[in-house]
Amino acid sequence: MKVLILAEKPSVAREIARVMGCREKQKSYMEGPGYIVTWALGHLVGLAEPEDYDHKFATWALEDLPILPERMKLKVLRETGGQFKAVQHLMKRQDVGELIIATDAAREGELLARWIMTMAQWKKPFRRLWISSQTDKAIKEGFASLKPGREFDRLYESARCRAEADWMVGLNVTRALTTKFGAPLSAGRVQTPTLGMIMDREREIMNFRSQEFDTLAADFGSFQAQWRANSGDGRIFEKDRGAELAKRLEGQKGTLTKVQKSEKSEPHPLAYDLTELQRDANRKFGFSAKQTSSLLQRLYEQHKLVTYPRTDSRYLTADMTGTLKERLESVAVGPYAPLARPLLRKPLNITKRIVDDSKVSDHHAIIPTEQTVLLNQLSAEERKLYDLIVRRFISLFYPPARYDAVSVTVTVEGETFTAKGTTVRDAGWREVYGGDLSADEDEESESGGGEAAGRGVTLPELRQGDTVTIRRCMLRGGRTQPPGRYSEASLLTQMEKHGLGTPATRADMIEKLVSSDTIERQGNVLHPTGKGKQLIELVSPQLRTPDLTARWEAELERIARGQGKPEAFLQGIRGMAKELVAEVKNSGAEYKPHNVSSSHCPQCGTRLLEKKSKRGKLLVCPADDCGYTRAGEKRLSNRRCPQCHKKMELKEGKAGLYVQCLGCGITEAVNKDSKHINKREQQKLVQQYSKSESLGTSLGDLLKAAMEGKQEGK
């Protein structure tokens, strides 16, 4: 009997097939002496749509809501139906006696496989491959220690509950909002509180009133210090007081009332999980969370250089300690060689900040694999992300950074001045990043760290009781600033803090908010749109805050551990869906489209709405029975209509570029191989090929000669 292996995608299936000796390639599977390897294409099976329960639900109507089936059905997804049939056929083969689930080792990967098994009516034994990297070694070790499939029943129940809960709440609230307010408005347990956080920040900014203030710095010759009030605030809000202080204190003597030295030790940062890596890549390179996820997936699957990416742990497990030196050897190339080689000559210092089984759930932190890296095979963006992962991994085995922190207080005429500075004693792990103590200043100040203020400032040798003189006072004006809008890095931090989504879904959720026109990117920050501002006011207060999602995630985690009951959880979700739909039905609010254009639909006369797409701005008719769409910005070509001789519009369709005259209804394909000749080119060709004796030749003959000459020259 043969064993069927189900991978999540073709690329993973190919690697497993190669390692397991499956050489015979077919359209939808690969076969060997003992194994058959096939694949899903993401989800092949999903939850049935409302119209699959009753055809009347195909038309969205407020009176039909909420839609809450007693038992949720599954359906084969139309776009991947062919692959499902192939997998089902393999499962029903008489010579197949066992299934190995080799989908992603996570909640969603388990759900994907179990739904396929349910729809294909798999009744035979099955086991689970649970690996964290795609190297040959990891695959072989994984197959040598396969786990019983039933060990993951609770993980599947947790994933099923999440999917069904999202369907019942998200689908019903989205349909209710859309039908009630006559606009495509979507809501859900993760996207709505995420939008709510962005809107809360927007309100803080709108309500903020900026104030002018002064700061006063004193130059004592060998160092500078900042004036501080008794409260510790260095800002002077009273008008003219700063100037008075400067005038009164300049040239005065003061005393060093406090000189405090302390040795500080800063341990290395923890290894990366997905969210932390997305934050760093956004801060340092401006990568979106989605872009980081895509690059990381390529490093994991295609190049096999990093471990499983969709992890929420920042620690390693004890069984990995024997592989750490091998991993260091694999990255000890190029710029990393001088950093990694010294570590290989002695035993590694492995602490609880690196290895801690109690802080690893499904997968350990993201670290390099044992695969030897060829840096020239990586794209520029892949190289940047790989650099972050490798440097963080190497830094784990370096000692803490040690430096002397000096804090000085000077009293002059009853006023207090303070200065802070540092002296590096041992760069420690910071040597991996160039040894600069001020390197993370922006990040620390962003997260509210006070240590950043004195970083990079070196103070001279000072003793308590010394007398110093203010040589000059420097007064600088400033204004209080509102809190900054969220960047993707800071939004990911908040989503993680409040338990919104998982490391695997947060990037997609931000993209969903952007694509649904509820938020927009402006540079590296996120702004709510007019639609987003109205939408957050239309949804139930329950959905606006992260508390609801946090409760859900806690309950789903209990189910995954076998401590919670799936049916009790889903019963509570049904009750909540009824409440949320009732709130929308009883709402007296109004929605006004924020993107109404000045153009009217030529078919029904309704004002068109502006929408952004990958191909530019579109004008769309909002009428349900119309569906008229056209480009919002005309692109005119140099080609003219053969009937009215006006310039034709350049458009892009599935077959490529084409030109169209809307008035005459004429459409022509743009042939990229033979470019259209404009008048200027015509004149050049005529001058090139016309001779003095052929003055009587017609323009047609000249052009013919020109084109023949051009063909010969090719």
UniProtKB/TrEMBL annotation:
<dbReference type="InterPro" id="IPR005738">
    <property type="entry name" value="TopoIII"/>
</dbReference>
<dbReference type="InterPro" id="IPR013497">
    <property type="entry name" value="Topo_IA_cen"/>
</dbReference>
<feature type="region of interest" description="Disordered">
    <location>
        <begin position="438"/>
        <end position="460"/>
    </location>
</feature>
<dbReference type="Pfam" id="PF01131">
    <property type="entry name" value="Topoisom_bac"/>
</dbReference>
<keyword id="KW-0413">Isomerase</keyword>
<dbReference type="InterPro" id="IPR003601">
    <property type="entry name" value="Topo_IA_2"/>
</dbReference>
<protein>
    <recommendedName>
        <fullName>DNA topoisomerase</fullName>
        <ecNumber>5.6.2.1</ecNumber>
    </recommendedName>
</protein>
<dbReference type="InterPro" id="IPR034144">
    <property type="entry name" value="TOPRIM_TopoIII"/>
</dbReference>
<keyword id="KW-0238">DNA-binding</keyword>
<dbReference type="GO" id="GO:0003917">
    <property type="term" value="F:DNA topoisomerase type I (single strand cut, ATP-independent) activity"/>
</dbReference>
<feature type="domain" description="Topo IA-type catalytic">
    <location>
        <begin position="152"/>
        <end position="581"/>
    </location>
</feature>
<comment type="similarity">
    <text>Belongs to the type IA topoisomerase family.</text>
</comment>
<dbReference type="InterPro" id="IPR023406">
    <property type="entry name" value="Topo_IA_AS"/>
</dbReference>
<dbReference type="InterPro" id="IPR013826">
    <property type="entry name" value="Topo_IA_cen_sub3"/>
</dbReference>
<dbReference type="InterPro" id="IPR000380">
    <property type="entry name" value="Topo_IA"/>
</dbReference>
<keyword id="KW-0479">Metal-binding</keyword>
<dbReference type="InterPro" id="IPR006171">
    <property type="entry name" value="TOPRIM_dom"/>
</dbReference>
<dbReference type="InterPro" id="IPR023405">
    <property type="entry name" value="Topo_IA_core_domain"/>
</dbReference>
<feature type="domain" description="Toprim">
    <location>
        <begin position="2"/>
        <end position="133"/>
    </location>
</feature>
<dbReference type="Pfam" id="PF01751">
    <property type="entry name" value="Toprim"/>
</dbReference>
<keyword id="KW-0799">Topoisomerase</keyword>
<dbReference type="InterPro" id="IPR013825">
    <property type="entry name" value="Topo_IA_cen_sub2"/>
</dbReference>
<dbReference type="InterPro" id="IPR003602">
    <property type="entry name" value="Topo_IA_DNA-bd_dom"/>
</dbReference>
<keyword id="KW-0460">Magnesium</keyword>
<dbReference type="InterPro" id="IPR013824">
    <property type="entry name" value="Topo_IA_cen_sub1"/>
</dbReference>
